[in-house]
């Protein structure tokens, strides 16, 4: 009796590495959120000894989250896997901090065209408070075709002399 064929969706190469990267991302997100919740829940008395030990614990959570994010990039580079764009957008490229809106990053919309006349030039800017690095993502802009696919159209626009 022959074996049943596997579905094409089950044949993913490097499944273990994808699982590992996903786990590291979830752990970094959990630690970063715990750090954000604890710092926002602290009272006004930040100079008491108990508050200082809490700050040290929170800094430890933040450092562990950064280490996990660094491990994500190390694993993905070693196995040559590109993490998903949603995963990459939650991480600062410069300092490996896990970005949480309102806690350690701010998000604004910029339009640097002449007086904002071009609505398709809107750019979402995420600025990390830890290192000051800014990430820019286009908003409401249709993606271009890949270069291999748009090469034919660009050749049609150029007329060459056979002379």
Structural class of the secondary structure composition?
mainly alpha
Count of DSSP-assigned helices: 4
Strand order of the largest sheet: 1-2-3
Spatial gap, N to C terminus:
68 Å
Q: What's the rounded overall pLDDT mean? A: 83
Order of helices and strands: HHHEEEH
Largest sheet: 3 strands, antiparallel
In angstroms, what is the radius of gyration?
Answer: 23 Å
Query: Percent of residues in beta strands?
Result: 5-15%
Helix coverage percent: 40-55%
**What is the count of β-strands?**
3
Globally, the shape reads: flat
Low-pLDDT sequence parts = none
The figure for the number of domains is 1
Keywords: Metal-binding, tRNA processing, Zinc
GO molecular function, one term: metal ion binding
Family: Belongs to the eukaryotic/archaeal RNase P protein component 4 family.
Pfam families: Rpr2
Notes on the structure:
The structure is a single chain. This protein has 163 residues and is mainly alpha-helical. The chain has one domain. It is built from four helices and three strands, in the order αααβββα. A three-stranded antiparallel beta sheet has the order 1-2-3, with no helix packed on it. Belongs to the eukaryotic/archaeal RNase P protein component 4 family. Keywords: Metal-binding, tRNA processing, Zinc. GO terms for molecular function: metal ion binding.
């Amino acid at each position: 009796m022959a074996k049943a064929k596997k579905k094409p969706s089950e044949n993913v190469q490097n499944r273990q590495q994808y699982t590992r990267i996903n786990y590291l991302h979830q752990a970094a997100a959990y630690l970063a959120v715990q750090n954000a919740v604890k710092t926002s829940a602290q009272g006004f008395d930040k100079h008491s000894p108990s508050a200082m030990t809490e700050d040290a614990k929170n800094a430890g959570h933040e450092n562990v989250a950064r280490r996990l994010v660094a491990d994500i990039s190390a694993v993905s580079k070693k196995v040559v896997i590109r993490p998903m764009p949603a995963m990459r957008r939650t991480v600062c490229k410069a300092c490996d901090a896990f970005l949480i809106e309102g806690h350690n990053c701010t998000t604004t919309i910029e339009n640097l065209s002449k007086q904002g006349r071009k609505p398709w030039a809107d750019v979402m800017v995420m600025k990390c408070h830890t290192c000051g690095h800014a990430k820019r993502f286009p908003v409401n802009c249709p993606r271009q075709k890949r270069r291999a696919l748009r090469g034919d159209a660009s050749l049609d626009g150029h007329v060459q002399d056979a002379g």
